[in-house]
Write a structure and sequence with these properties.
about 300 residues, alpha/beta, Rossmann fold, 2 domains, 5-stranded parallel beta sheet, 4-stranded parallel beta sheet, 9 strands
Length: about 300
């Protein structure tokens, strides 16, 4: 059975993600108590269910600490994937302010005083940290709901086994993706933004590609990143990772980073011998997915 655990920080989009799984035909359960996860899987197994998505978050309190060992046990007989949704604190505060909802950890029956929103968010991060370290993490700080649904749909195309490597383009002016394991800064490369004909285009467009592929520094940067990943990828695999996010950033995330992500992922997808372990390669373009009008 394919078991997907959806977790993360309140306000980061877990409901949107769960609906995306539901739309894809998964059996979905929201806000499940940790103690019931194994019995749920046993029941679904008897019903011959093949795919399930379960949302569990910090509302379950200290029992969340039991999840890693439970998932390890389930992983002996099933394919288990953890999807962790995250966002920066400022974004979360703004979202709670807009919806006027209370954070689920802002009150506690054992407390005589309610926690502030930021205190509740900090506590939630601490409770969920053991899950985040081995999860497929998605930073939704600058991601609208439709883009998150699209990213989840892309994730569902990959098999939840082996190592998944995500190449993500982004713009430094909107911050570095919090889920990035490796970050490459390509702002030193010539910028198509200063060509009035190329400015409204992106790194996916042929005129921009033709402009960049003729520049020796761009070719050298592409080669260096590929060689670095080629060299260190076996070490990340040996470390037991399930996900590795490689973020490539330029100023606005429209031209140079998009071009290099597309070029580099083409290289790795074309490799015939990647070892016995199944490696899946996914590409993301944060600024293009978030706002087609983003500038580089």
């Amino acid at each position: 059975m394919q078991i997907n655990l959806i977790t993360g920080i309140s306000g980061s989009g877990k409901s949107v993600a769960l609906r995306a799984f539901e739309d894809a035909g998964y059996d979905c359960v929201d806000n499940l108590p940790v103690s019931l996860l194994e019995s749920l899987i046993a029941t679904l197994e008897k019903e011959n269910s093949e795919r399930v998505a379960v949302a569990i978050d910090a509302r379950r309190g200290e029992s969340i600490a039991e999840l890693p060992s439970i998932l390890e046990n389930l992983g002996r007989n099933h394919q288990v994937r953890v999807v962790f949704l995250n966002a920066d604190t400022n974004t979360l505060v703004q979202r709670f302010s807009e919806t006027r909802r209370r954070h689920p950890l802002s009150t506690n029956s054992q407390q005589t005083q309610s926690a502030t929103l930021i205190e509740a968010i900090d506590k939630e991060r601490s409770l969920l940290e053991p899950l985040r370290t081995q999860a497929h993490s998605i930073d939704t700080s600058n991601l609208p709901a439709h883009a998150l649904r699209s990213w989840i749909q892309d994730l569902l195309k990959d098999k939840p086994v082996g190592l998944t490597v995500i190449f993500e383009s982004f713009g430094f002016k909107r911050g570095v993706p919090s889920e990035a394991d490796l970050v490459f800064d390509v702002r030193c490369l010539p910028n198509p933004h200063y060509d009035k004909d190329l400015r409204p285009l992106t790194g996916k467009d042929k005129p921009v590609q033709e402009f960049l592929e003729k520049i020796a520094e761009v070719v050298s940067m592409e080669t260096d990143i590929i060689q670095f990943i080629d060299k260190w990828l076996p070490h990340y695999i040996a470390d037991g990772r399930s996900y590795l996010t490689v973020a490539i950033g330029c100023t606005g995330g429209q031209h140079r980073s998009v071009y290099l992500v597309n070029r580099i992922i083409e290289h790795f997808r074309a490799q015939k011998d990647l070892g016995a372990l199944q490696i899946n390669f996914l590409d993301r373009h944060r600024e293009l997915d978030s706002s087609p009008a983003a500038k580089s």
